[in-house]
């Protein structure tokens, strides 16, 4: 029996499990499309037949899927997380979901005697590979403490908030700022380009100033080249924007700038950029 | 006779001239409200009676005022820059203006035999004090070379673009991104606050991630405290947003996110925040 | 036993049942807060103890509540519509809801052998009183035909779309246009007022032109007077905007103008206008 | 000598002069591209060689051009209106311009002893042909009275505001509402289309309700067919939106909805719709 289980082997899960394995931990993995586990199995991971089986056989199981519907399905469907939960079993959902989804999973797992932590991550492909993610946790505090070693392997920092749902909310706030910064950046690059300035000059000047940040540095030159290989797929950013705006709606917080950004991502989805990096929003803005 | 003249002694001019004086240069200053020069005179500056007098008596004169109308007035009004210009005299406008204003000043000075450089700065109070501004220059290249020593004292980096107006355009692009990033940041903090998250937790988590930048770090905690002492006054940011959007309009570049941000600053002006730091836009967003 | 049942006696239900009674129909009514039925009972209506009882005792029962959650609760809760449904019983939901809610009610009722029609109305208090509503129906076509007499009493026109959910979608499209027209109107009146034009002059000139419409005529002068007595409460308009934007999100249709309008309503809710007429959005825009 | 002069023979001027001629008035016309006057000459108009000549020879001369720059050029350029002005000569500018342009023309004409009225019109091609325009006048009240007969021929109603610039401002307020209503309408039709509703069904239902208006009725079916023959060219609507937003900026009135609409028109210009009817904005929204 492995100490850790891991469900959902996409861009993020691949990198996170690799780091757990490198650190010497036993990990049992599962993915809906089983072949996506092959590389990890080659690196020493065991593979489970169902999510339920993994949860039942591991002390702590992590889940990383793409949206609230997938997170619910992973937990509640046949052969899902909930079937494997019993006293002594623990589940940590590191997906980005809304508060309602997080609460419903939390309640179901508690009812069966298990422990639950929501722990959405800040950071995409590169930080995942570097073990530099940030975990935004809320739920069972004892589980947060027991998971510390694994969180430290996969991430550089973790935060604990007492109330379930607050991890999800914090993640949405961060990603809403990030998503809107990206459309602001893309609008600036597009405007500069239209008036005859070189994108690389704009990037060099931004690098000197008060708004210089890793995202502009990392993605700016890729955007100038037209390279939109997905680190964080655009459709997932748009999903996070949607959830954040819905959160704003529920607490009467008008969000004019972020709503405009959200519409830019929706337009980019229509323009066929769903599976590219979210920086591909610049294509719809400048076209 | 001083080597350098400096017209317009506001937050920025004060800091820039101080650095020139500290570096051992003679500087002659002028300001519409003469008393604002007193501190600099105490530090060794000479004071001129009119802008024209300063321009006529110095090799290179810098001008730093708040908007296009002020820049035009400084140049064209009675006793203004143009009256002091003759062959051998040089004027560098470091204000942020639109392309049309820059071109009209450029043409008038060239006609009288003088040299002109537009050199809007990226950076506000703190970089000005630290000699860490970035100059975005276009116009007369020989003047750019002759001014190098002074630009190096006041700034950490300067860029030269051959076509007049491009310095202004680059500045507007940079400030539009900055202004929109600020409303994105403010919307995120406001949303977090409404759902019960601590602003300081949000700031700490942002500091770990891909969008961490000096502006969030510098202004974030001040905003959380409600301290909006002006480093870059909100009305000037709104002016830059307006000019950038007008540039977009002129080249058919739709700018949805930045337009929403501009409206947030306009609202903040109505709410009485014109002379506070531009980060005060958060007050109108979260109120 | 009455031919018609009616569940939900608010501004709209009151007027609709009054017209049914005036036309000589027997109507059995029910409302969560029972006293709201008193006026209708005085006019000759019978009163049921539960929604289920009304549905079980009437041929065709109408339901009119304020949002999708209320519509779901009315159907699925204890003593709700579903309990009263059996073969031969019919339910027509005239509330404005989203497609998912409409489908789930439709499926549940069909499973118990009943007939279901969704029939959201276009029109608020005044058209309801005048029997001039427009019904946007989809679902069971035989029920649509059987309800014709009642729909003709309460409304001036009804439309039938074959696919369940299309009535709801049509309603959202209409109300999104209406809600956005209102913020456009409010922005125009506010701008005019700021520059010194009389609101009544603006209204008189609008009345001469190509965009003259009953809503501007009816609400314009009330808005100029500051009279925001609710014909269609602002919180309901914001709910419809939210649902329409969510529909756009689901089919990748960017909706920049309507999103800005939605944020204006959200702001107005924060400013305390939820229960006023939706034209009260002007207060937040011009304040 | 004709009583009336008319400068600028575009879509609007053509129709307005035709009505003056039909009513039995003598009219002398002028257009930069002289051939555009041919049809009117066939109908009995005289043709002047320059704008100045027309102004000098007629009691009252009307000018109708497309934007502020053209209105300024028409007045101030060589052979322009101002050269023909003297005591006893009167000029009525029926173009839509900003307040500054209107004031500068007003001042120049007064200085030469002439009378000036700004009289922008509400209404496009069809009302112009039907003599059903609305004139929004400000400036010299005696000229307003003297022009009454001609205004009554070309329009169905005219308004007088005492302060110069108010006619222009009123026009901008009206057109901003109209332009934003159009993008709201276009978003609604696009959303409906995406979810499978027929545009003609949406139009029929709108025609029943509180927001029914001539613009929706006139343009809706043309839009559904994809017919965008220009009654009011999109580039002119975008110009009016820009001027209205600039007016809002100058008086600290945030205009979120109208700004979003303006960006939709800018996008449509980039998409090549400048010279089509402004309803062509739907193509950029739904594409």
Describe the structure.
The structure is a homotetramer of 287-residue chains. With 287 residues, chain A is of the alpha/beta class. The first copy, chain A, folds into two domains: 4-164, 3-Layer(aba) Sandwich (Rossmann fold), CATH 3.40.50; 169-286, N-(1-d-carboxylethyl)-l-norvaline Dehydrogenase, domain 2 (Orthogonal Bundle). Chain A has helices at residues 11-22, 38-42, 51-57, 68-76, 81-84, 99-111, 125-129, 141-146, 148-154, 166-194, 199-206, 214-225, 234-250, 256-270, 281-286, and strands at 4-7, 27-30, 46-47, 60-63, 90-93, 115-118, 121-122, 133-139, 155-161. In chain A, strands 1, 2, 3, 4, 5, 6, 7, 8 and 9 form a nine-stranded mixed beta sheet that branches. Chains in contact: A-B, A-C, B-D, C-D.
Q: What is the name of the CATH superfamily of the largest domain in chain A?
A: NAD(P)-binding Rossmann-like Domain
Number of helices of chain A: 15
- Main beta-sheet strand count, sense and barrel state of chain A: 9 strands, mixed
Please identify, by name, the CATH architecture of the largest domain in chain A.
Answer: 3-Layer(aba) Sandwich
